[in-house]
Write a structure and sequence with these properties.
This protein has 118 residues and is an all-beta fold. It contains no helices and eleven strands.
Length: 118
């Protein structure tokens, strides 16, 4: 079955950096667009960054543009999110998602917690 496993979350001070990863299995990774989403307490889940299946195109939420970078390694079935200049507002559970819109498939990971202290 399909599994997406996030890792790398933790506690970091404001202004610090953190890298999170999402390892995928059970799917043809290179056929899926990958995205990172986050959900803070009492808030709706929001899209943070997305990368196309071949890694050629990326897009970011305005709130993280210039501070976060999404990349992928199709040989390792892994997508990454590098986060710099972190702010307390970035505190949330971070989820990765695999999407293959042509066939209507999407899968979610369980999430990894990122906490930024002020």
């Amino acid at each position: 079955q399909v599994q997406l496993v996030e890792s790398g979350g933790g506690l970091v001070q404001s202004g610090g950096s953190l890298n999170v990863s999402c390892a995928a299995s059970g799917l043809t990774f290179s056929s899926y667009a990958m995205s990172w989403h986050r959900q803070a307490p009492k808030k709706t889940r929001e899209l943070v960054a997305i990368i196309t299946s071949d890694g050629g195109v990326t897009n970011y939420a305005n709130a993280v543009k210039g501070r976060f970078t999404i990349t992928r390694d199709n040989a390792k079935n892994t997508v990454y999110l590098q986060m710099y200049s972190l702010k307390p507002d970035d505190t949330a559970m971070y989820y990765c998602k695999a999407s293959r819109r042509a066939v209507g498939y999407e899968y979610w990971g369980q999430g990894t917690q990122v906490t930024v202290s002020s």
